[in-house]
């Protein structure tokens, strides 16, 4: 990947930013017509690669004595704006390459350029239909109804037409965005095309990184049409950054290579506080996640009754058995002699604790040690009052909620279901913490409103214990990274990326059903060895 491609692949834009970038390109002299021609030409070539128009020759048989061949039949869905214009250029190109094309153009008012392309398509003899009921069969549909210009809810008759198109068992390739999705929130505006494949044009739009859009996007692909980096930088200069985490950025954050002369405490000392009689497994998974991070020294505080279990799983770790409550939660921390919380580079606290461990969680929140809080650590923080409690903290805090925990922590922040990116950004700004909002596309925000999003993952992770592994992994990376002055938000983003990549690799080898949390821990290092 070239330097430019790498930079472009990290960029995420809103519809407004895309329009501003486009405006700069046109103002600099690039004709609108030429850009549409270039972009749609790239899409048409990509479609030919994916669906080659190989003549499908019917075999000679006694019952059908003459052999004949047929072309791939492609239906082109055309909207009123330039998304429709793109689709019409694709229609024309595929027509000349021998595909059998028909056009569905239900709008009476089209933008000038779109209207011209429609007129030319008609002059070529391509059939054009206005009514959904008139449409012939097809092998493939190209969706150019709406792109990033869509802002209002879709209503009938176009909404019901989209619903009917979704019912056909034909692959749908969407241009720029499945029609009906909001470009920024990924929300469905009334209804939306369920694409098999979406070609995102020029720069990744925010919708591609929002959970609620995923089931509409299908396979996603960026069509790079050479937007000058200078225009991108000029538009994004003063906006809070949203970045896709790429392998290059994640790998550059990892504590590799290690210096030749070092020792275990220089490679970070992590204290995990986790587990209860009820949730013993959470402590093991968190610890194995931390082991996967390569942290120099690992101490694990658990209720006394779990100590021997943890020792048997993690012979290299220092297991600290603590006095327990009647319910089997950690009652108080009992660190070894000459050790206090400040002895650790970082603490990760929460998995499996139960809310009976609240005095311990309060103690670590009041400490001045960098802290990852997860699971019951978050529930206890929510009970204490998230924002006033965190405002008193001097050291770094990373919160790793899933959507439910997020809601409890930040009940007054924007609805995370409606716009996850906006919600995580507000939560970080208000709390002063780095917030990692877990989900299908995990998003990390820092208090300066910058956001990092994991662009690919697998639903194999939707399984009990996956989050515990992430907490350990993140704690271990934090303990190592802080000693090397790596920014905390980069560490959190890298941990989330690594966790997802391990799950993707495990899924490839074992299917989506084969990625239990313990197995996931075994893929952490395997993932890295594939990258180096
Ligand atoms: N940026 C780039 O670099 C490049 C961009 N390119 C392409 O341009 C696309 C953006 O084009 P666009 O701005 O014309 O908007 P688009 O999404 O086609 O549709 C908006 C139209 O829909 C209408 N409309 C809106 N809501 C509606 C509703 N509910 N129900 C009914 N109608 C509704 C609205 O009209 P309105 O009614 O608001 O006047 C407007 O006419 C982009 O996605 C990409 O494909 C490439 O060609 C070249 C490179
Ligand atoms: N559909 C999905 N696609 C990708 N990742 C997912 C999906 N669902 C959950 N995950 C990931 O799985 C993990 C689940 O964490 P969490 O909800 O804390 O589970 P647990 O508490 O059982 O360990 C998170 O890292 C989350 O991002
Ligand atoms: K579209």
UniProtKB/TrEMBL annotation:
InterPro entries: Carbohydrate_kinase_pred_CS (IPR017953), CARKD (IPR000631), Nnr (IPR030677), Ribokinase-like (IPR029056), YjeF_N_dom (IPR004443), YjeF_N_dom_sf (IPR036652). One of its GO terms (molecular function) is ATP binding. Keywords: ATP-binding, Isomerase, Lyase, Metal-binding, Multifunctional enzyme, NAD, NADP, Nucleotide-binding, Potassium. Binds 1 potassium ion per subunit. It holds the Pfam family Carb_kinase. Residues 18-233 form the YjeF N-terminal domain. SUPFAM superfamilies: Ribokinase-like, YjeF N-terminal domain-like. Its cofactor is K(+); Mg(2+). It comes from the Bacteria. Residues 247-531 form the YjeF C-terminal domain. The keyword Hydrolase does not apply. AMP binds at residues 438-442, 467. Its EC number is 4.2.1.136, 5.1.99.6. Bifunctional enzyme that catalyzes the epimerization of the S- and R-forms of NAD(P)HX and the dehydration of the S-form of NAD(P)HX at the expense of ADP, which is converted to AMP. This allows the repair of both epimers of NAD(P)HX, a damaged form of NAD(P)H that is a result of enzymatic or heat-dependent hydration. HAMAP family: NADHX_dehydratase, NADHX_epimerase. In the N-terminal section; belongs to the NnrE/AIBP family. In the C-terminal section; belongs to the NnrD/CARKD family. This is Bifunctional NAD(P)H-hydrate repair enzyme. It comes from Desmonostoc muscorum LEGE 12446.
